[in-house]
């Protein structure tokens, strides 16, 4: 009977088949993942819609939905004041000043990004209400790429 069940391991709770599981002592960490939704042109113009003009693409419903689903809530980086208060007490002045410049720059960048998303949402909604579809210039289509930030445990 030897070798018939060579992958079985005897444990305190009985027999376990397969190699023993290795449990990592490293704690799980939360990370942010960028999910990019490529701009897709609609396969055809909708019934009753005019043809797509030269030099433009009509956004697919999938692209419109991805754009309108972009999160506009302020990111914690939008207001670094709490972090700056902590760093002020922990860092030497020269390192604090450099950290402050970086955090304030990141906050401004995040504010501009969020502002562009809000403007894009308003424009896309306006086009949908007015025409029922969204046409964009081919050369500007990439600016309509929706990027979603998602957190996951690693």
UniProtKB/TrEMBL annotation:
It comes from the Eukaryota. Residues 1-24 are annotated as: Disordered. This is Uncharacterized protein.
């Amino acid at each position: 009977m030897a070798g018939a069940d060579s992958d079985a391991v005897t444990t305190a709770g009985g027999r376990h088949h397969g190699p023993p599981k290795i449990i990592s002592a490293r704690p799980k960490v939360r990370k942010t993942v960028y999910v990019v939704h490529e701009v897709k042109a609609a396969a055809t113009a909708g019934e009753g819609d005019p043809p797509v003009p030269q030099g433009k693409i009509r956004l697919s419903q999938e692209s419109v939905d991805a754009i309108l689903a972009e999160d506009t809530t302020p990111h914690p980086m939008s207001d670094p004041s709490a972090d700056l208060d902590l760093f002020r007490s922990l860092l030497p002045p020269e390192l604090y000043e450099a950290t402050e410049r970086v955090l304030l720059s990141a906050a401004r960048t995040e504010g501009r990004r969020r502002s562009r998303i809000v403007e894009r949402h308003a424009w896309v909604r306006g086009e949908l209400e007015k025409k029922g579809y969204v046409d964009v210039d081919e050369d500007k289509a990439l600016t309509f790429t929706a990027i979603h930030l998602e957190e996951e445990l690693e």
